[in-house]
Specification:
The complex is a heterodimer. Chain A is of the alpha/beta class. Chain A contains 18 helices and 13 strands. Chain B is globular. The chains are: A alpha/beta, B mainly alpha. Chains A and B meet through α2, β2, α3, α11 and α12 of A and α11, α13, α17 and α24 of B.
Chain lengths: 422, 573
């Protein structure tokens, strides 16, 4: 699975430092952040790489917390030839190491513009993700409109909870689950503030941050809201929460990204043609939040077969290998080869266009935070939101004061980071 | 033993090497210390000074920052260091029990000692499975018909503590077992007849006999406690990580917030905590020579009372069940396909080997098994060469006694050094030498970390070789002959050092994580990578855990008989 949301700390030198003593001809070193199932899928894609006759392709999974470990600590000796990096900021911060792929053109999509610095495009989006989805089972939730506004959705949740049918499963043990919730609500309420926070020019004391927390707190503290109760979900990871809905039939919905699909199809007996999703609820009249993720292939060394590998990864043939399994979206083709039940076309359209307010691609906010805000197990935003969840859902503290404490913690962390911890 | 007076009391013969006999310091022993000095000096000592210097770059400012930032982690680390002696004491108690249970002793000891060969990561996986809050999956909750959130705030430390105890108690039991056998019974009898009370006997006979090996066990368990890392990472859910934080982990996750100096200060704090303990042990326990074991009387000791033996049997059976469970759970889980293992616990149906197939599918695991094995083997051999030479020099090299004591003290201190202390500096040095992530670098680091403990162990063993033998050999013409004779005579200790190193390198997580590239393929890292989402990776994780545990476990079980001797006395008899 993913779990690269901690990766903002992963600077390219880290990837580079991990590559060991490279330099042997005839080999393409690829560094990725995937592991487990995703890594296996990527291996399958590489297996079909026509250049395999000439090049020996080796993949290194550099995981997520690994970024925390290195930072500036370990210098680089040998760079991989190709790296798949989980967000554009990493590319921008390491332009001196990355070989531009091509010159920018006026027609480039908002996605390509993210990777454009000066006159050059520095990377190619191989895999993108849609993170503003709610997956549900119809037999519990009933029919759902194609688009919910927040208040109607909350009312339906309340209604279900009152009838003793837990509306939601949630994996609080994965910090990024909570940050994704926060980001989706914030993006629906105020995209400007969202971008300001991501860029580090907006104070976390902005009232809308508190509003988001209040909305979440009110929702999370509904009695009977979570399958298994709040103490249990505190120890539940994302994958378990998906199974709680689709395997154990313990709740109606789970908030998740497009990579929820393979979890359902592989680990539950739930029929794929009955899997349903709707976009994350937005405030009435507000923009539809489309939170995206993406892995861009960048070239770190010219002259290796890296460029030909990236060209291959751009092709629809490469995309379809993984697309057929789910948990993979590509902006390089028009949605052929996806699992029929997934209804991938609208997903890809939304991802390609970006958020409703003027076609901007909006990446995961928590991926772009650094310093003491940077998420990670037991730290940063992950910890702050977890503590907030514990306060309102487990300890049942009043939402207002808990939100105040969370805002204070966020603000403190942001200012500590800005003050320039070395 | 011709000089024995009256009773069998006395002379715990002074088996110490004839140090200080030769007035002139000879150059050969010094030469023998050279490889160890270079390795330890280059990989451990110099980087340590680098870290110390960095931590003091701002006076005590960095230490203040570290304390402010990592209070919970420091508190938890201290907790683990306090917990370690308790584990040893429990081992001592079980060892007494084991001595009474005569029939099932071998089985009991085998089961208790097996976890020593299991990596912290794998034991973390096992305990997380056993204590899963979901009664469909968690063994304990299924047995109790409850839904206790064992991995939650109230219980998580208990779960982690049990995993740690499970891992280390066996070692204490095995070693204390042998230690209890060394207690000179004649002496106890004599003291009793002279009217010495229980306490008096304990103080003047039992404790002094057990102290040296007790210190060694404690030292090893303390090292385990100070290096707690992968256990915490894998056994505690993400939402509990802030609560179970330890210094080593905090340094890794949040060291960036503190900056170079602050992070250095943090690991120095951890190091100092444990050094104080190690120094005391080194001063009191390890530099003593171990009591000369005497052949145990062949006659069986009189059977205990009926009640006692019944209790013993129950407790013994309980211990075997309790200690066998984690590995059994892993094994049974691994023979479920991934989806079945994700859905329900090991006792449910739906068996199949699909998890094994998936574990090997991407080729990463096999690659890692081969690489890790090769690295472990080479590290063990390198360590042997270096440590045998150094230990011989310390035992029989005729170095001044003060020098020997100082060197032993240094070894004891370095033996407990957490890798975090030097890793940053090492990373920079290796990067400069273009060695970063190279197998050579990893092997050197592993061997260097093994040297201090290996030297302590081997020196103790070597020092017990009868003086006559060494003297006789010295008259022979070939130069290496004494060394080989001594080492050969102490082959259980030599074997022990090699096996320990192999197991440590095989099970290594942190050195591979911090210094090795993914290309190096460290088995435990590959397992960890697959564990991000615990539920859905259960099957594959269990399969990988079983495969990766089989190797060191088999090694330890096969060589177990000699390992006990190697750890306790070290001399073949």
């Amino acid at each position: 699975m993913r779990r690269r949301d901690a990766l903002k700390a992963l600077a390219l030198p880290a990837l580079a430092g991990l590559a060991g003593c490279g330099g042997d001809r005839g080999r393409i070193h690829v560094a990725v952040v995937w592991s487990g199932w995703e890594l296996t899928q990527f291996h399958r894609v590489l297996h079909a790489f026509p250049g395999r006759d000439t090049w020996d392709v080796s993949v290194q999974s550099v995981g997520d917390d690994i970024g925390t470990l290195l930072g500036d600590r370990v210098a680089d000796v040998a760079v991989p030839d190709v790296a798949l990096v989980p967000y554009a900021g990493l590319v921008g911060a390491n332009l001196d190491r990355i070989v531009p792929l091509r010159t920018a053109a006026a027609t480039d999509s908002p996605w390509d513009r993210l990777l454009t610095f000066g006159h050059d495009v520095y990377g190619m989006w191989f895999k993108v993700a849609h993170k503003s989805m709610v997956w549900f089972r119809e037999d519990r939730l009933g029919a759902a409109p194609t688009r919910w506004d927040w208040d109607t959705w909350v009312a339906r949740c309340r209604d279900l909870a009152q009838r003793g049918s837990p509306p939601l499963a949630i994996g609080v043990a994965d910090g990024w689950v909570l940050t994704d919730w926060f980001e989706n609500v914030l993006l629906g309420l105020d995209p400007q503030v969202y971008r300001g926070l991501a860029a580090g020019r907006q104070s976390w004391r902005h009232p809308v941050v508190r509003t988001v927390l209040e909305r979440l707190g009110t929702l999370w503290s509904i009695p009977g809201f979570f399958a298994g109760g709040p103490e249990r979900v505190l120890l539940t990871q994302f994958d378990q929460s998906v199974l709680d809905v689709f395997e154990r039939d313990a709740a109606a919905m789970v908030v998740g990204a497009d990579f929820t699909w393979p979890v359902i199809t592989q680990y539950s007996a739930f029929p794929p043609d009955r899997i349903r999703w709707f976009p994350f609820p937005s405030p009435q009249g507000g923009p539809q939040p489309v939170l995206v993720g993406g892995d861009a292939a960048v070239l770190l060394r010219e002259g290796s077969g890296g460029r030909s590998l990236i060209d291959w990864l751009r092709s629809p043939e490469a995309a379809q290998i993984w697309a057929a399994e789910g948990g993979f979206l590509s902006i390089n083709d028009r949605g052929a080869g996806y699992p029929p039940g997934l209804n991938a076309r609208p997903l890809i359209e939304q991802v390609r266009k970006g958020s409703g307010d003027g076609g901007t691609v909006t990446f995961d906010l928590s991926d772009q935070l650094s310093g003491r805000l940077a998420g990670g197990e037991g730290r940063g935003t992950w910890k702050i939101f977890k503590d907030f969840f514990t306060a309102v859902a487990v300890e049942r503290s009043a939402v207002g004061p808990a939100a105040d404490r969370a805002v204070a913690a966020l603000d403190l962390a942001a200012r500590a980071s800005a003050a320039g911890a070395p | 033993m011709s000089d024995e007076p009256l009773f069998e009391v006395a002379p715990r013969e002074d088996t110490r090497a004839p140090m200080g006999r030769r007035p002139a310091l000879r150059w050969r022993p010094l030469l023998m210390l050279v490889p160890a000095t270079i390795l330890v000096g280059g990989v451990l000592l110099l980087p340590l000074f680098g870290t110390l210097a960095a931590s003091l770059g701002d006076g005590i400012g960095h230490y203040r920052d570290a304390w402010g930032d990592a209070r919970v982690a420091i508190r938890n680390s201290v907790g683990w260091l306090v917990f370690a002696p308790l584990v040893c004491l429990a081992g001592l108690a079980l060892a007494r029990l084991g001595r009474s249970a005569r029939r099932s002793r071998a089985l009991l000891i085998g089961v208790l000692a097996a976890p020593v060969a299991v990596s912290a990561l794998v034991s973390g996986v096992a305990f997380r499975l056993i204590f899963d809050p979901n009664p469909q999956r968690g063994t304990v909750n299924a047995l109790l018909h409850t839904e206790i959130p064992f991995l939650g705030p109230r219980w998580i430390l208990v779960v982690l503590g049990s995993a740690f105890a499970w891992q280390w108690i066996g070692l204490a039991v095995v070693v204390f077992q042998a230690g209890l056998g060394e207690i000179p019974r004649d002496l106890l009898r004599v003291m009793r007849s002279l009217g010495a009370g229980r306490l008096g006997r304990l103080r003047s006979v039992v404790v002094p006999t057990l102290l040296p090996i007790g210190s060694l066990v404690l030292l090893i368990v303390l090292v385990g406690a100070a290096r707690i890392f992968d256990l915490v990472l894998i056994a505690a859910p993400g939402s509990m990580q802030d609560q179970v934080d330890v210094v080593g982990v905090h340094w890794w996750r949040s060291g960036g917030d503190l900056g170079y100096g602050g992070a250095a200060a943090l690991v120095v704090v951890l190091f100092l905590l444990i050094v104080v303990i190690a120094a005391v042990l080194g001063r009191w326990g390890l530099s003593r020579d171990w009591p000369r074991a005497r052949p145990e009387p062949a006659a069986p000791r009189p059977p205990r009372s009926a009640v006692g033996s019944w209790t013993v049997r129950t407790l013994g059976t309980g211990a075997i069940v309790f200690w066998g469970t984690p590995l059994l759970v892993l094994l049974l889980t691994s023979v479920h396909p991934p989806a079945a293992a994700a859905r329900a616990g090991w006792w449910h149906g739906g068996f199949g080997l699909d998890s094994y197939r998936q574990a090997f599918e991407s080729g990463e695991l096999l690659h890692a098994l081969v690489n890790t094995g090769a690295r472990a083997l080479i590290s063990a051999l390198l360590l042997l060469v270096v440590a045998v030479l150094a230990a011989y020099a310390l035992a029989w090299g005729g170095l001044p006694r003060v020098a020997v004591r100082v060197l032993i003290g240094v070894a004891a201190v370095l033996a407990v050094m957490p890798p975090q202390t030097v890793i940053v500096v090492l990373g920079r040095v290796f990067a400069y030498l273009q060695l970063l992530g190279a197998p050579t670098a990893l092997i050197l680091v592993h061997a260097a970390f093994g040297v201090p403990l290996a030297v302590l162990l081997l020196r103790n063993a070597f020092a017990q070789v009868p003086r006559e033998l060494v003297r006789a050999r010295r008259l022979e013409p070939e130069p290496g002959s004494v060394l080989f004779a001594v080492a050969a005579r102490c082959w259980p200790a030599v074997l022990t050092v090699a096996v320990l190193e192999f197991v440590l390198v095989w099970n290594d997580f942190i050195v591979g994580l911090l210094l090795g590239g993914p290309e190096n393929g460290q088995v435990m890292l590959v397992l960890y990578e697959q564990s991000r989402e615990f539920t859905t990776s259960t099957g594959v994780l269990a399969a990988g855990a079983v495969v990766s545990t089989a190797v060191p476990l088999a090694l330890v079980l096969v060589t177990g008989k000699w390992l006990v001797r190697g750890l306790t006395a070290g001399v073949s008899r």
